[in-house]
Amino acid sequence: MLPATQTKDRKLLACPFMSTVFQLVQSDNGVSNGTALWLSGQCLSAFLAHSGVIKQGMRVIELGSGIGLTALCLANMGCNVIASDLPSVISTCLARNIESNISQLSSGAGNIVVRELDWTVSPEHWFWDHETIIASPTCAPPAEQQPPYPFDLIVSADTIYSLELITPFLRTLHALCMVSMTAPPLSRRSAVAFICLERRDPLVVDRTLELAQSVWGFTVGRVASRKVSKALGKSVTWHKEEWEDVEVWKFTL
């Protein structure tokens, strides 16, 4: 598989993962960043596959699933996954890619569903028992609904790129971690989050990491480059220069 930087002009991508090949459509039309494959999504999938983090049956939610590569990879490894994004991304490529590739998942695969999750919607207005929505600015949840269920893992790739989205993103991440801490049984730990990014704008990245700690109470730590390199070496044959700006960060409460 080529790095995403070399495949922006392709409408259909063949993405090998372990013993399967996902066929994913993308659209690099300039309307939304989320409708095309990004390098950090490829790197996150490779890292998770060889990190020892993933356990069979884990409950995982992905923020900004894009064309669905990471979500499909996680489901293929036995996780039960919520792939979330905005309606424009879901309708353009995400829903189609998930539906058309479910048959390619291994026999021990977990479940995977697609949900709208708009980070600008405050967590008190989220749904937890809606078939298609977790957070939407056009829909209000009912007065009574099922309690949220906890997550073991939160993942996100190439979602730290805008100063305006830092607070909505961190608020969403924090709320999902708190859901996991407060859902029965109350002895549960916070979900662990792995965020993969390209340091294209150091100001945005550094500000995000600063606010994550000072305002939202996260402990953040960068995954060592050698660990990322080792994982990538088991999945792809790229030169280091093609991914050296990619970083993987671990967030915990």
From TrEMBL:
GO cellular component: cytoplasm; nucleus
GO terms, molecular function: S-adenosylmethionine-dependent methyltransferase activity
Coiled-coil stretches noted in the UniProt entry, renumbered to this chain: none
InterPro entries: Methyltransf_16 (IPR019410), SAM-dependent_MTases_sf (IPR029063)
Pfam families (alphabetical): Methyltransf_16 (PF10294)
Gene3D superfamilies: Vaccinia Virus protein VP39
Name of protein: Methyltransferase-domain-containing protein
